[in-house]
Specification:
This protein is mainly alpha-helical and 69 residues long. It contains 3 helices and 2 strands, in the order H-H-H-E-E. It is 54% helix and 12% strand. A two-stranded antiparallel sheet has the order 1-2.
C-alpha cells in the first residue's frame, strides 16, 4: 500500500523522523512497492526495509535523534 502523504506513514516512522527523512522514507517505500510487485506476502516488509535503508544513507541516529549526515 503506497503512502500518499507523510501523515499516512506508520506512527513509528512519522513521529521519530524529521520531515525530510520521512519524505525520503515515503518516496523509497512507494518506489519499492512498484518494483517488488511480485514478492507476495513479503512485499510490505521488503518495502519497509528498503525505505529504512534509504533514510540511513542520508540520516543517522545521534543521542536518540535522527540527524542529517
Amino acid at each position: 500500500m503506497p503512502y500518499e502523504s507523510v501523515e499516512q506513514l506508520p506512527i513509528a516512522v512519522r513521529d521519530h523522523l524529521p520531515l525530510h527523512a520521512a519524505e525520503i522514507y515515503r518516496s523509497a517505500f512507494n518506489h519499492a512497492w512498484a518494483s517488488y510487485a511480485n514478492r507476495g506476502p513479503a512485499r510490505e516488509e521488503i518495502c519497509h526495509r528498503v525505505a529504512w535503508a534509504a533514510v540511513k544513507r542520508r540520516y543517522r541516529k545521534a543521542d536518540g535523534v535522527w540527524v542529517e549526515r
